[in-house]
Each structure stands twice: as structure tokens, then as C-alpha cells.
Design a protein that fits this description.
By secondary structure, the protein is mostly helical. The protein has helices at 10-33, 62-65, 67-87, 92-109, 113-117, 121-134, 138-142, 156-171, 181-187, 210-222, 234-241, 253-258, 267-275, and strands at 38-42, 47-51, 57-61, 177-178, 197-199, 242-243.
Length: 277
């Protein structure tokens, strides 16, 4: 049973009720079938002690046997939750309501009998809960990173509309950028950028076109979507936010900025995108 964006806890709802007991049975049966030299079995903590070939005690725990499975599902749940917050980002009441619903679901899990038996699972639920808390802290919403862009708009709601439309236009085939949507929103709302935005335009020399990237940002400034004050440190902004088409940080940006080119690669498409915002 897999979680989905509509039901981010679907796996845990299914797994924590009864399915985890099947994995526990397999944990013990595998130890027996593999003919391990069992020294002792602790069925309260679900730990098997065995003697290795050198008569030294080694420990096998049920927690470690399912650790990768649980960690993988925790990450999937967090990914789906993040998408849920993205959909509600422009409405603070919806963000709060969504977070409260998710928290209520986690609290429900804490009453499951299997959570009490496998207490280590509480740490996984706590990790998800802390992830949810991140979206409720005003400091995170208002945080301004020194070299992250900030789209000018009449209101926060209008800002999100502009950014989401720009993201759609830039990722239409053939795309000019590649990145996850949350990073794109962060990069244009003055917040921390984790993975960066890959700039995909390649020039005739087969290298990524830095001049087209400078042109794109400068046009956003000219059209009053970005403050003109960023031009002084534009290389630092681009270095922080953008990556080349291979995901590497840009180098020699100042040199590229000073290079004047009348034939900017993909100029017409960039102009069309900015005029369509």
C-alpha cells in the first residue's frame, strides 16, 4: 500500500495496523531458516543475539531490519506533504488547516497498539511532525536570504501567482530550466535554495549560455519584477540560485556579464515568457 499526494499517510495507516507484524514474523523465521547460532532472543525489544564463527556475540534487531523501508516511506510522506503545502501556499488559513489535519493524523497513530510495542517508530513520526512544523513558523516564511531573488508584487498572494506562472512557462517543452517547484518558489521569495535551478539553454559552442541567463534576469529587472538594486551583485545572486545544465555551480560569471552579445541564445523565447507573465 503506497502513500499518495491525497493520502500522504496511507502507507503508515496500512503498515502500522497489522502489516508490521508480518515483517516481525519474517524477522524471526529468517533467523531460524538461516541456521544462525542463536545465543538468545529478546522478544520484548525484538533483538536476536547470535554467536559468530569467533564465538563473539552479534546483535540483530527488528528495528534495523525494517529501517530502510521505514526511512524510505518517511521521505515519500514528507515529499507528498510538501506538495500539499505548495498547493495551499498562497492561503495562510489553508496552510494552517492542512498542518493541523496532518498533526491530528500523527496523534492518531500514537494510539495504535503497534506503536507502543515498536516504540522506535515514534522517532519516524516525530521527524514528520517536525517537518510539518517548519511550514508553520513565521520566521521561515519571512526569511530573506542575502542572495535569493524576491519578485515584486502587490501582495504575497499575487507574488505566488506570478511565480507559479513563470515556473509553468519556463518548464514547458523545450524547458529553459529544471528544478523542483519548491526550490523555484524559494528562489523568488527571498528564501533558502537547496538544490538550485538548472539553466538549460546551450549556446552554439555547446556550453550552457550564461549570457542568456544574465539577459533573463536583467529583463525581469527592466519589467519591474525584480529590484534594480540586485544588478550590483547580480553575479552573486546567480551563483547562489542557479546551476549549469549539469548541476554544477557557475564560474567566471563576472566575465560573462561583461561580455556584450547582440545574439542572445533563445532571446525570443525569453522575451515571450516574460511578456506572458
Amino acid at each position: 500500500m503506497q502513500s499518495t499526494q491525497e493520502h500522504p499517510f496511507k502507507f503508515f495507516d496500512w503498515y502500522l495496523k497489522e502489516e508490521i507484524k508480518k515483517d516481525l514474523d519474517n524477522f524471526y523465521s529468517n533467523a531460524i531458516s538461516e541456521e544462525l547460532n542463536i545465543y538468545s532472543i529478546n522478544k520484548e525489544k525484538h533483538i536476536i543475539e547470535i554467536l559468530n564463527s569467533e564465538s563473539q556475540v552479534e546483535y540483530y534487531s527488528f528495528e534495523n531490519s525494517i529501517k530502510n523501508k521505514i526511512n524510505s516511506q518517511v521521505q515519500k510522506t514528507k515529499d507528498f506533504i510538501e506538495l500539499g503545502f505548495e498547493k495551499r501556499f498562497s492561503n495562510k488559513k489553508e496552510v494552517k488547516g492542512y498542518a493541523e489535519f496532518l498533526k491530528a493524523k500523527i496523534n492518531q497513530f500514537l494510539y495504535f497498539k503497534n506503536i507502543k510495542e515498536f516504540s522506535f517508530l515514534e522517532n519516524s513520526l516525530k521527524e514528520i511532525s517536525q517537518f510539518i512544523d517548519y511550514y508553520l513558523k513565521p520566521a521561515n516564511i519571512n526569511f530573506q536570504h542575502n542572495y535569493s531573488f524576491n519578485i515584486i508584487s502587490e501582495s504575497p498572494e499575487k507574488q505566488v501567482i506570478i511565480i507559479e506562472k513563470l515556473y509553468t512557462l519556463l518548464t514547458e517543452n523545450p524547458p529553459l530550466i529544471q528544478c523542483n517547484k519548491s526550490d523555484f518558489i524559494n528562489s523568488l521569495t527571498g528564501r533558502e535554495v537547496k538544490n538550485g535551478i538548472y539553466w538549460l539553454i546551450v549556446g552554439k559552442n555547446k556550453f550552457v549560455s550564461k549570457t542568456s541567463l544574465f539577459y533573463f534576469i536583467e529583463e525581469l529587472v527592466k519589467k519591474k519584477y525584480l529590484k534594480s538594486s540586485i544588478i550590483t551583485d547580480l553575479s552573486k545572486y546567480i551563483e547562489y540560485v542557479f546551476r549549469d545544465n549539469n548541476g554544477d555551480k557557475f564560474i567566471n560569471l563576472k566575465q560573462s556579464k561583461s561580455t556584450v552579445s547582440k545574439n542572445v541564445t533563445s532571446k525570443d523565447k525569453i522575451d515571450l515568457i516574460i511578456s506572458s507573465i
